[in-house]
Amino acid sequence: QLDPENTGFIGVETFASLVHSHELPLDPTKLDMLVALAQGNDEGQVCYQELVDLISSKRSSSFKRAIANGQRALPRDVLLDETGLGFYKRFVRYVAYEILPCEMDRRWYFYQHRTCPPPVFMAAVTLTQIIVFLCYGARLNKWVLQTYHPEYMKSPLVYHPGHRARAWRFLTYMFMHVGLEQLGFNALLQLMIGVPLEMVHGILRISFLYLAGVLAGSLTVSITDMRAPLVGGSGGVYALCSAHLANVVM
Predict the structure, then answer these.
(1) Global pTM value
(2) How far apart are the C-alpha atoms of 179 and 232, rounded to whole Å?
(3) CA torsion sign, 91 to 114 to 105 to 99?
(4) What range does the domain containing 90 cover?
(5) Does the record's keyword annotation contain Ion transport (predicted)?
(6) Could you tell me the CATH number of the domain that includes residue 20?
């Protein structure tokens, strides 16, 4: 009766009077959450599906975020319909669609996104890898298959199971690369996947994820091949790809 056109929305004032007149057994805290979600659209409407999710205790993180951020005045149109965007805003929209599976979360991220702090971790790691590669390439006068050069293997950054006592090598090997192909592949994926992930999830979570993948690589080599040296940031790249796979599945 309150939604004759079957839109799935009713006005928040209508809903409030309905709660009062029918004495619906809604927890006051959940009612406040629902009202906060209603303020997330510019028409101030209560969504039926949000009510169902609220009663069944689904999407609790979305409700908590709605309370934490207060009013979220977002257009109800699909984000892809947004026109006249500059280069940076188009990139933010691309990141939203690449990383976030829910349209509401995409719009919330797009309109609430701030450039501070910038995604500096993946950019800094990639830049350091390129600088280290150029330095060793110029020093050894060798740009491919550098691991075959005896001086290269003497580097304090390369990991080898025989050097397990030097704990820093479990991570520093990620700055060394065999050649241009390995460096280019890793750098490309780090920037294409790592930067969008870092923009959404933040530097702490992504740095922990990346370094955990690097550490897993050196630990695996330690127990599978005691003779093999290890170089490259592929372990971290695989961790980023696996994290992105979760977004693809969702």
Answers:
(1) 0.65
(2) 10
(3) positive
(4) 82-116
(5) no
(6) 1.10.238
